[in-house]
UniProtKB/TrEMBL annotation:
Its EC number is 1.11.1.6. Belongs to the catalase family. This is Catalase. Its cofactor is heme.
Length: 501
């Protein structure tokens, strides 16, 4: 027993004699600097915190595997999808978006759904949400949108005015707002929700033929949501509700799993689809593009150390393997920049060398040095081209070319009636009476804290999505329905002027 006892050491591995009393000259006087153990212990403690993620700060994660169940090789040459039965090790992290690292798991918010596949051809990340759409469709708006979900710079309080002011000035958000304020905005833990790429990506095969795809991951546990009241209560009684649920279920061997599907659109169909297939505020109707099964993933291992493996995990929608590439979705293009940029700030230059982020295959390139480099690459040569047999690119990995010619300018998405169609269909066709009632009361319970002129502007947008939808929210807020109707009849510019003060 004694032989197996671990000796306490410094970070240099030097044995420590005492960890309960710092070294002083006499009983309880000045602590001496020669007490290097105490100094190191405090100095390390002083540096324990790293910046939390600017969004998606509160989250949980687990490891597992992805298994291919259906042959999709005709669409993509991605090695990890090449054969039925092929398994790939993976990591999943689920999160809320707007709150701080200590915020409640049950907040009304989209849930992050980030997957990292450790493939033989390097890491592939699928960084999605539990919603198939998003609030905005140009990345230039993202910092503003996120600021409205954070704290007011003056009061340091969450701000219903900012939240609804921005959304009502950004009507393309209506589809995602309708999803968020349904009970899907408060899922019952992370195991009972679906995941989506939301964005459209490119898949291409060995012949260089490409298609456009959207990922869908359906929970095998079944969808389960909390009501607004349950979510609010849990935020007080068990703010780590979803974290606990995921950890405990894996710990007791009840491994959650998701079935993976894709929707596939041929390039020639993209030009003529009734919605812009690269606009993330829209879905592709399943009746037009049915779900094609691909595989499943199972989470069967909790992290050994939360900070090392989950807090330091770095996902990026730009981590592609051959066979998968980006698409002309301008939100996605901005994301390709933002993730590794924030991770260099949050975790350091060599964040990709941390064990959780490092690919399981060798890496060879000419990037060298930087802070906290663990020297995973050979030392020479360190330039390219070279005649010393250094690693060289291979043209066979070039993704298919796509035509993106045109005039460079700040092209705005024109706001059109088409932007309200899918929210209206969701309200009137996909939702049950129960869903609709909860949607209305969830919205009213939140927007009632915003200024009335903002309530009017947003109600007009609900009305444009579906007259009953706008009417019911307006009734819940005791607004003048005729005023809502006349605002709904205006274009957005006039509506904004009419509700300016
Ligand atoms: C996290 C930026 C849109 C899903 C993050 C982070 C940033 C960011 C800076 C923190 C990353 C880190 O610290 O490691 C952006 C920008 C967007 C955008 C600029 C729009 C232009 C989206 C969309 C989705 C999404 C549309 C889903 C479809 C996620 C997820 C995480 C995340 C799941 C958490 C990843 C993790 O678990 O570590 N985003 N985001 N984001 N984002 Fe986005």
């Amino acid at each position: 027993m004694e032989e197996n006892k671990k000796i306490l050491t410094t970070n240099q591995g030097n044995p420590v004699d005492n960890d309960q009393a710092s070294i002083t000259t006499q009983k309880h006087t000045m602590t001496l600097l020669s007490d290097v153990h105490t100094v190191e212990k405090l100095a390390h403690f002083d540096r324990e915190r790293i910046p939390e993620r600017v969004v998606h700060a509160k989250g949980s994660g687990a490891f597992g595997y992805f298994e291919v169940t259906h042959d999709v090789a005709k669409y993509t040459c991605a090695g990890f999808l090449s054969q039925v039965g092929k398994r790939t090790e993976m990591l999943a992290r689920f999160s809320t978006v707007g709150g701080e690292k200590g915020s409640a798991d049950t907040a009304r918010d989209p849930r992050g759904f980030a997957l990292k596949f450790y493939t033989d051809q390097g890491n592939y990340d699928m960084v999605g949400n539990n919603t198939p759409t998003f609030f905005i469709r140009d990345g230039i708006k993202f910092p503003d949108f996120i600021h409205t979900q954070k704290r007011n710079p003056l009061s340091n309080l969450k701000d219903a005015d900012a939240f609804w002011d921005f959304l009502s000035l950004t009507p393309e958000s209506i589809h995602q707002v309708t999803i968020l304020f349904s009970d899907r905005g408060t899922p019952d833990g992370y195991r009972h929700m679906h995941g989506f790429s939301s964005h459209t990506y490119m898949w291409y095969n060995e012949k260089g033929e490409h298609v456009w795809v959207k990922w869908h991951f359906k929970t095998d546990q079944g969808i389960k949501n909390l009501t607004d009241q349950q979510a609010t209560e849990l935020a007080g009684t068990d703010p780590d509700y979803a974290t606990r649920d995921l950890f405990n279920s894996i710990e007791k061997g009840d491994f959650p799993s998701w079935t993976a599907y894709v929707q596939i659109m041929k390039p020639e169909e993209a030009d003529n689809y009734k919605f812009d297939p690269f606009d993330i505020t829209k879905v592709w109707f399943h009746s037009d593009y049915p779900l094609i099964p691909v595989g499943k993933f199972v989470l069967n291992r909790n992290p050994q150390n939360y900070f090392n493996e989950i807090e330091q995990a770095a996902f990026s929608p730009g981590n592609f393997v051959p066979g998968i590439a980006s698409s002309p979705d301008k939100m996605l293009q901005v994301r390709l920049f933002s993730y590794p940029d924030t991770q260099r700030h949050r975790l350091g230059t060599n964040f990709d060398q941390l064990p959780v982020n490092a690919p399981k295959c060798p890496i060879h390139n000419y990037q060298r040095d930087g802070q906290m480099n663990t020297g995973s690459q050979e030392s020479a040569p360190n330039y390219y081209p070279n005649s010393f047999n250094g690693p060289a690119p291979d043209i066979k990995f070039t993704p298919p070319a796509i035509d993106v010619q045109g005039m460079a300018a700040r092209h705005e998405y024109p706001l059109g009636d088409i932007d309200f169609v899918q929210a209206g269909e969701l309200y009137s066709r996909a939702m049950s009476d129960y869903d609709r009632s909860n949607l209305i009361s969830n919205i009213v319970g939140h927007i009632k804290n915003a200024q009335q002129r903002i309530q009017y502007r947003q109600c007009a947008i609900f009305y444009k999505a579906h007259p009953e939808y706008g009417t019911r929210v307006a009734e819940g807020l005791r607004l003048d329905i005729n005023k809502v109707k006349s605002l709904a009849a205006m274009n957005q510019e006039d509506r904004v002027k009419a509700t300016a003060s």
